[in-house]
Design goal:
The chain is of the alpha/beta class. It has one domain: Rossmann fold (3-Layer(aba) Sandwich), CATH 3.40.50. It is 32% helix and 28% strand. The protein has a 6-stranded mixed beta sheet, sandwiched between helices. It has a 4-stranded antiparallel beta sheet with strand order 2-1-4-5, with helices on one face. Strands 11-12 form a two-stranded antiparallel sheet. Strand 1 and strand 2 form a beta hairpin. Helix 4 packs across helix 5.
Length: 248
């Protein structure tokens, strides 16, 4: 199920945050959005869920304008994991994950079975009865990913899901996304995770798409220097995997 942003522009308080940005995430692929702070990455994906209004452009889900879809219909097709993992309320982990079933017919399957399958997928069944507010930021990210698994959508949009996670859990999440056969659109800040897991990259700068294409096309030393203002080298290890090293 493809996700497309076409010529999207956002202006907030007379400041252009996005300037005619076009992007397409394809079925069964990980499409990454990368760029420095303030480049418009999070703003772009928030427009999909009406968290931020856009003044120009269109957004499509499987070639259908999302303005013609109800919020519940969108939620049956696309899950969202935001950057903020805080919680104001004393929900248990089980209750949080169960919220993923809200857009669906409750009679389709036993909800508890779906919830615990999602928790088992991420190996966090032991969290089920815990208060979400007692968990670390990284643990909460796993819970919200479990909620998206329970939501059982064809697509997932994520905003920096590996923040606050140790290396083990970063790779657990990225491996799940790589192998889940869904359309994945992810804002990611780690160049090496993007190099390893993304199929396509949109590199943003100053509210525009600076470059897009395969990771090997986008992640050149020249592009990284132009966008992130750091000097480094693209290397290959003994397994021919590509990684980026910043020069000191």
């Amino acid at each position: 199920m493809s996700i497309q942003f076409k010529d999207l522009s956002v202006n907030i308080k007379n400041k252009d945050i996005l300037k005619k940005v076009s992007l397409r995430a394809e079925d069964n692929r990980i499409t990454g959005i990368i760029g420095p702070n303030g480049s418009g990455k999070s703003t772009l994906i928030k427009t999909f869920f009406s968290l931020i209004s856009y003044q120009q452009g269109e957004i499509f889900l499987d070639n259908r304008n999302i303005k013609d879809m109800s919020s519940k219909e969108i939620a049956r097709n696309v899950a969202y994991i935001g950057q903020d993992s805080s919680s104001m309320f004393d929900f248990t982990v089980e209750e949080i994950v169960k919220m993923g079933r809200f857009p669906h017919d409750s009679k389709t399957r036993n909800i508890d079975d779906i919830v615990y399958e999602a928790l088992d997928t991420l190996k966090i069944r032991d969290f089920a009865k815990r208060n979400i507010r007692t968990l670390s930021g990284g643990e909460r990210k796993l819970v919200y990913l479990a909620r998206s698994i329970a939501q059982n959508t064809d697509s997932i949009i994520l905003d920096e899901p590996t923040n606050h996670l140790d290396i083990k859990h970063q790779y657990m999440i990225m491996n799940y996304l790589k192998n889940c056969n869904k359309t994945i659109l992810i804002v990611i800040h780690d160049i090496n995770l993007a190099l390893r897991f993304c199929d396509k990259i949109y590199m943003m700068k100053d509210g525009t798409v600076f470059q897009s294409g395969s990771v090997h096309e986008v992640f050149t030393e020249e592009n990284i220097k132009s966008v992130f203002e750091v000097v480094g080298t693209i290397n290959r290890d003994s397994k021919n995997d590509v990684f980026f090293t910043v020069e000191r």
